[in-house]
Amino acid sequence: MNDFALGVISSMAATAVTVMAGWILSARTRDWVVAALSRYTGLGVRKLHHQQRRAADELAGDLARARWVAVLAGRGNELTRDAFAPIWSGAVRPLDTVRVLLPDPRPDSWLVRREDSMRRFDRGLRPGMLLEQVRTNAQYVREAALHLDGVELRFYDLPNLYRIILTDKVAYITLYGDTEHGRNSPCVVARRPGLLYGLALRVFTITWEASSRG
């Protein structure tokens, strides 16, 4: 498991480089650099959002057009919000599959380390609260699965460092910081085909295959 964890972490390096290169520049220059990098390197970056939450409307549109969806979440709160509501309510066309990966919420899992890190900057997060939130979001997905075909839920026990949301056309990749919530962390939107989309798909697939049903 250690070798697997290290492989997943190192595979996100290209995304980190893209984010860092963008945020040291002004907004206008950043857009130009992102477009140039995407064109000449094949990264396939469509957009960079300074904060994940600013990508919510764009994400909702992509989910509404998707044929399938795959989510590797650090907590899973996004699953209960407006962007995913049409999927759970059946307001969009039925998806082939909806695969959800959430952190293992057991007391001895990697999620506990993420919670300890978050509590250093979020004093409102009491011990065990993050684990409870993941369990609640997992139950939400389980309930949706009772009414929809193709919904699957699994749990991973790996370093909680990023969020990935995939469709058949696009990937949303958020890199979590040590001193901020995921919603305030930068988010890369990568289109298919492209190196970053392929990277995100591989990370999700490898994690899915190594995950458990809880």
Provide the spatial order of strands within the biggest beta sheet: 1-7-6-5-2-3-4
C-alpha termini separation: 17 Å
- CATH-assigned fold name: Endonuclease, Chain A
The assigned structural class equals alpha/beta
Rounded Rg: 17 Å
Approximate shape: globular
Please describe what this structure looks like:
With 214 residues, the protein is α/β, with parallel strands linked by helices. The chain has one domain (2-209): Endonuclease Chain A (Endonuclease, Chain A). Helices cover 43% and strands 18% of the residues. The chain has helices spanning 2-11, 13-23, 27-41, 56-64, 85-89, 110-119, 129-145, 195-209; strands at residues 45-49, 69-72, 98-103, 151-156, 162-167, 170-175, 187-191. Helix 5 links the parallel strand 2 and strand 3 (98-103). The radius of gyration is 17 Å and the shape is globular.
